[in-house]
């Protein structure tokens, strides 16, 4: 039986991906900081739950190692846990930056560092890192977030190139705004700025409406089955990514206009 570990699997995108993987007969372990939500999700979909803080490298390694030892294989690792941190850059403290880097970037690094040697040894496996559309286009008003997501895209594509031919696949997921609780608790444990407090409202205003997590989970699993390098959804996100590649300067100008509107 194939196995998967999904970090941040208690809620939102990770929860939907874990549910759909289980529906395809994969033995899924969800690993999350939020123990109550993790237990609830695990019970609802018949998954295994382990408490995990992805900022703790040794704990990440222990979770992945335990799944491989218990089931004899580790097929998929979804490094998905993440937090939203936003605000005008001049209002952000170093704690905003460091917390975002610790969870969104170091959390992924810890997952890769633990999963990759296991997958090389067994000769197969797929690492799926969750970045964001904010990792592909200039996304102001959430600079720590944007920085970490660009880093996760770079890490994933470079590792994919390095892993090619050694049996290990690497994909990166870049969703546009999706309807999850993420934006409801922007800046968790950190001073919230006016922009962060209005993030969800602003996202809905900018994009029309938020993408459904169920559709996104289907997009992700389709992309993983096809071994796509970069999985971008919804279609409006792919259009924004294409436009930013064609005209990086134009993308900055558009992002600047949106920022000025929000600044008022
Ligand atoms: P969510 O808030 O619904 O789920 C995130 C999960 O990660 C939560 O269960 C939370 O407890 C867990 N988590 C947070 N810090 C953790 C830590 N240190 N260790 C372990 N678990 C931790 O949010 P959502 O939207 O499902 O986010 C999942 C990923 O998707 C994140 O990486 C996010 O940046 C990314 N994303 C989300 C978008 C959106 O609009 N919702 C758009 C683009 C990317």
Explain how this protein is built.
With 264 residues, this protein is an alpha/beta fold. The chain has one domain: NAD(P)-binding Rossmann-like Domain (Rossmann fold). Helices cover 54% and strands 14% of the residues. It is built from ten helices and seven strands. It has helices at residues 12-23, 35-45, 57-71, 94-122, 143-163, 194-197, 199-207, 213-225, 235-246, 248-263, and strands at 3-7, 27-32, 48-51, 76-79, 125-130, 168-175, 230-233. Strands 3-2-1-4-5-6-7 form a seven-stranded parallel beta sheet, sandwiched between helices. Strand 1 (3-7), helix 1 and strand 2 (27-32) form a beta-alpha-beta unit. The longest helix has 29 residues, at 94-122. The protein is globular. It starts with a strand and ends with a helix. The mean pLDDT is 95. The structure holds 1,4-dihydronicotinamide adenine dinucleotide. 1,4-dihydronicotinamide adenine dinucleotide (NAI) binds at residues 7-8, 10-14, 32-34, 37, 52-55, 80-83, 103, 107, 130, 132, 175, 177-178, 180-182.
């Amino acid at each position: 039986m194939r196995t998967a570990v999904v970090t941040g699997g208690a809620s939102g995108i990770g929860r939907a991906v874990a549910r759909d993987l289980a529906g395809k007969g994969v033995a899924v372990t969800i690993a999350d900081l939020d123990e109550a939500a993790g237990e609830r999700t695990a019970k609802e979909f018949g998954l295994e739950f382990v408490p995990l803080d992805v900022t703790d490298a040794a704990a990440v390694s222990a979770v992945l190692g335990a799944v491989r030892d218990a089931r004899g294989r580790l097929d998929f690792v979804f490094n998905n846990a993440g937090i939203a941190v936003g605000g005008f850059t001049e209002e952000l403290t170093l704690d905003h930056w460091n917390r975002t880097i610790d969870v969104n970037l170091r959390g992924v690094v810890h997952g890769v560092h633990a999963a990759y040697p296991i997958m090389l040894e067994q000769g197969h496996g797929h690492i799926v890192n969750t970045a964001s559309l904010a990792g592909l286009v200039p996304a102001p008003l959430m600079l720590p977030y944007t920085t970490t997501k660009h880093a996760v895209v770079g890490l994933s594509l470079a590792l994919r190139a390095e892993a090619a031919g050694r049996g290990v696949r690497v994909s990166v997921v870049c969703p546009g705004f999706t309807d999850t609780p993420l934006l409801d608790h922007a800046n968790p444990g950190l001073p919230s700025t006016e922009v962060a407090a209005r993030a969800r409202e602003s996202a809905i205003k900018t994009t029309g409406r938020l993408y459904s997590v169920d559709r996104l989970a289907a997009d992700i699993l389709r992309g993983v089955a096809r071994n796509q390098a970069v999985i971008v959804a919804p279609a409006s996100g792919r259009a924004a990514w294409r436009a930013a590649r064609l005209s990086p300067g134009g993308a900055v100008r558009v992002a600047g206009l949106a920022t000025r509107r929000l600044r008022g």
